[in-house]
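Supplementary notes for students who missed Thursday's class. We covered one full example, reproduced here. Read the sequence, then the structure, then the short commentary at the end.
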Amino acid sequence: MEKLIKINPRDNVAVAISPLFKGDIITFDGATYTLINDLPAGHKMALQDIKEGEKVIKYGYPIGAATCDIPRGAHVHAFNIKTLLSEEAAYTYDEKKAQEYIEEARIKELSWKDKIPTIRAYERKNGDIGIRNELWIIPTVGCVNKIGEALCSWAQKNLSIEDGVHVWTHPFGCSQLGDDHENTRHILANLVHHPNAGGVLVLSLGCENNTPESFRELVGQVDEERVKFMTCQKVDDEIAEGEKLLGQIADAMKKDERTSVSMARLRVGFKCGGSDGFSGITANPLVGRFCDELTAMGGTAVLTEVPEMFGAEQILMDRAKDRQTFEEVVALINNFKHYFTSHGQVVYENPSPGNKAGGISTLEDKSLGCVQKGGRSIVTGVAKYGERITAKGLNLLSGPGNDIVSTTAQSAAGVHLILFTTGRGTPLGSPVPTVKIATNSELARNKKNWIDFNAGRLLSEDERTVTNDLLQYIVKLASGDVKTQNELHGYAEISIFKDGVVL
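Structure (token representation):
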């Protein structure tokens, strides 16, 4: 087995598959190298002399420029390269290139004709499907969090809800202004409508800025057997009243049964967290191949964490379905850059210490690996933070890189599950099943209570086999035959984006 991997023929660096050490002599790609430094797994080695100021190429694209002369065989990392990103960038729409991607997608769609898998899911009255039948408690304001937790605990002990009872606590709903206030309201309202919830109790205080009346209006039409509203200040005993309402919701949910539906009705979110040098080699490309298959079936994919598109955004723009969508992607990127600069921050203040320890040197390095989760699928839609996804195909959703904030946004946008790639490991879970995909086999072995799927297999197994295994796993997960580690261990929470003043 090779000790290094070159991702793209144009690259002038290769990635160590396992730890290598100073003085090691390695034959790779027809050449012999003597390592000048120790090289941890996931880190980069220079395949040729790279002069100061010269671009460092990985994935076939620049990930930065050398800050000094780097000899062949040397460790290439944050200490000797720098980002090429800036706050300003020009983007171009290439209709010819877009049409080539569209034709490629059309051919893949034909490969699934009459062969789309089925899953067993819950049909909802509004025509949607759910892959879980959970009971959710949604506080409209942080003041009633503890009441929600008490009711959740009671329901878990006294109601027979097979897929579980959850309360989505948060600190907001009052003392917020402008966009922050509206973001909170829209995220919570969209969670009320989530199809994985067979029933919902909306829990209000009564005097909050997010008034029960205005929130009820925002939520709009609901199945009144399954969605109940309670204002704590208007009842004598909020615990007794809450228990009564939860019991009524549970009674309505008892009628629900899974039925066979097309996998084309599935919506899947893609996210990465705690990335390492293998993220762009194993897990993210694996998710990208799944994305291509899902969208070819007619399914829906959602990619977020906009700051981790910086440096790779043109790749996504090249796959926009038309010029209008291209312009929407440009606005998505530029608006998030403006968010950074309006707070006096540079757009390239990334990656994290954990990312760097795992072998990622610059934001371009991280982003070029990150966007691979979108495969080669056509970008069919762009959504603002707090919006629900309506377009089939690959959608880009505005949101930050923060794991809990972005997975909450994807959940509120309507995804049924999230594929979450990680090289460092995380127990995180969102309101929907959160599939943790390890970039390396060591993490998968060491954190079995966190990891659901091992993409490290790609370093030694055929990619078609591993991709098919992931697809079959998702069919089982969506059908309720298996649960994710975050579900099994109760790791699930929400976090809402905040930009402005708290009163």
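Commentary. The longest strand covers residues 197-204. Residues 262-489 form one domain. If anything here is unclear, bring it to office hours.
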